[in-house]
Each structure stands twice: as structure tokens, then as C-alpha cells.
UniProtKB/TrEMBL annotation:
<feature type="domain" description="GST C-terminal">
    <location>
        <begin position="92"/>
        <end position="211"/>
    </location>
</feature>
<dbReference type="GO" id="GO:0005739">
    <property type="term" value="C:mitochondrion"/>
</dbReference>
<dbReference type="InterPro" id="IPR005955">
    <property type="entry name" value="GST_Zeta"/>
</dbReference>
<keyword id="KW-0828">Tyrosine catabolism</keyword>
<dbReference type="InterPro" id="IPR004046">
    <property type="entry name" value="GST_C"/>
</dbReference>
<keyword id="KW-0963">Cytoplasm</keyword>
<protein>
    <recommendedName>
        <fullName>Maleylacetoacetate isomerase</fullName>
        <ecNumber>2.5.1.18</ecNumber>
        <ecNumber>5.2.1.2</ecNumber>
    </recommendedName>
</protein>
<keyword id="KW-0413">Isomerase</keyword>
<dbReference type="InterPro" id="IPR034333">
    <property type="entry name" value="GST_Zeta_N"/>
</dbReference>
<dbReference type="GO" id="GO:0006749">
    <property type="term" value="P:glutathione metabolic process"/>
</dbReference>
<comment type="similarity">
    <text>Belongs to the GST superfamily. Zeta family.</text>
</comment>
<dbReference type="Pfam" id="PF14497">
    <property type="entry name" value="GST_C_3"/>
</dbReference>
<feature type="domain" description="GST N-terminal">
    <location>
        <begin position="4"/>
        <end position="87"/>
    </location>
</feature>
<dbReference type="Pfam" id="PF13409">
    <property type="entry name" value="GST_N_2"/>
</dbReference>
<dbReference type="InterPro" id="IPR036249">
    <property type="entry name" value="Thioredoxin-like_sf"/>
</dbReference>
<dbReference type="InterPro" id="IPR040079">
    <property type="entry name" value="Glutathione_S-Trfase"/>
</dbReference>
<dbReference type="InterPro" id="IPR034330">
    <property type="entry name" value="GST_Zeta_C"/>
</dbReference>
């Protein structure tokens, strides 16, 4: 039934899941959360049950309106098209393109290179590897944001770009990336973390957050 409550398959620390949790919170969509632990039991995303939901064996996946979607940006675009308020894309086509550019920069150009599956293959050099790719991505992003930013990534309205930025900064902090060279990224991230939707969706406040990481 299309009227059923959406179900989000999420892992508290997954930056891709966090993007979708922010979108759901901003748009006031209530949902049920099913935790998928990416580390326990060799990774619950590899179970036959989850593979049937998302053949890519990754979170997030969202069951909504009678369909199951994976890939965070595809999910966010669907939410934007079916539940347009508040909007996560600016009206102006140039600003809209900038939002998509920044989002793609993060979701294609930075995050996949430091994802769990890649780092497993890298082995003991994983910290250095992750720092290297996040830093080179942030150097470019800092430069872009100096041209596009107002209070947030593009102007003064929260957009899809911001939904991608905050989780990526959290990853950077987890991998001990020096944020000193990125004052614009740091400033925007701080402003966004003051917003309720970013707080309730935060990894430290999820049903599957381990007790020692809870806020």
C-alpha cells in the first residue's frame, strides 16, 4: 500500500544514510528505521534478505509509496519531486546546477574513495588513504564554496548540497583530517549542525548508535 509508513534501512554511521535521514527530517516525513549493521556478522548488508532489497548491498534503502529505492541522491530527488516542501533545490537553474555539482563532488568524488568496502581492501594504510582523498576533495570544495556559499553551500537556503556536506565533514573528523585549511566548509558545517533536522538525524542519536557513542 502506498499509504504505509516509509521504512528506512540505515546504519547510524553511514554518511549516505545520514543524507537521507536529514532529507526525511527536513520534509517532516515520519518513517520506521531498520538498522543494518555494516560491521557485525561480517556485515548484515551481505545477507540474502538485504540483497533482495538492494543488490548493491549498501545502505541506505528506502521503502516508500510501494517501491524500494537505493542510492542516497536518487532517494532525495524522489522525495523532492513527490514532497516538494520545503524545497531542497533552488528555483534558479544556475544555483540548482551548483547544488547538484557540489552534491556530486562529494557523493562521487570523495565519499566512495573512503568508503568501508574500499578501506577494507587498502588494509593498514587506510587512515592515510582516507585522509589523502578527503583532503584533496576538500581543497577543491573549499574553492568552489568560496564562490557559491551564503550562509550555506549555495546561498542562504538549505539544499541537497548541504545534506551531503555535513556527513562528509563528520567522516573527515573521524579520519582525523586537519580542517584548518577549509574555513568555509567548517563555517557552513557549524551553521548546519545548529538546525533541528541535522541534529535529530545525527549518528549519535540513532536507534542503533552504540551506548558509548550516544549524545
Amino acid at each position: 500500500m502506498a499509504s504505509e509508513k516509509p521504512i528506512l534501512y540505515s546504519y547510524f554511521r553511514s554518511s549516505c544514510s545520514w543524507r537521507v535521514r536529514i532529507a526525511l527530517a527536513l520534509k517532516g516525513i515520519s518513517y520506521d528505521l531498520v538498522p543494518v549493521n555494516l560491521v557485525k556478522d561480517g556485515g548484515q548488508q551481505f545477507s540474502a534478505e538485504f540483497k533482495a532489497l538492494n543488490p548493491m548491498k549498501q545502505v541506505p534503502a528506502l521503502k516508500i509509496d510501494g517501491i524500494t529505492l537505493s542510492q542516497s541522491l536518487a532517494i532525495i530527488h524522489y522525495l523532492e519531486e513527490t514532497r516538494p516542501n520545503p524545497s531542497l533545490l533552488p528555483q534558479d537553474p544556475k544555483k540548482r546546477a551548483q547544488v547538484r555539482m557540489i552534491a556530486d563532488h562529494i557523493v562521487s568524488g570523495i565519499q566512495p574513495l573512503q568508503n568501508l568496502g574500499v578501506l577494507k581492501q587498502i588494509g593498514e594504510r587506510k587512515m592515510e588513504w582516507a585522509q589523502n582523498y578527503i583532503s584533496s576533495g576538500f581543497q577543491a570544495l573549499e574553492q568552489i564554496l568560496q564562490h557559491t556559499a551564503g550562509r550555506y553551500c549555495v546561498g542562504d537556503e538549505v539544499s541537497m548540497a548541504d545534506l551531503c556536506l555535513v556527513p562528509q565533514v563528520a567522516n573527515a573528523e573521524r579520519f582525523k583530517v586537519d580542517m584548518g585549511p577549509y574555513p568555509t566548509i567548517t563555517r557552513i558545517n557549524k551553521a548546519l549542525l545548529e538546525l533541528e533536522a541535522f541534529k535529530v538525524s545525527h549518528p549519535c542519536r540513532q536507534p542503533d548508535t552504540p551506548a558509548e557513542l550516544r549524545a
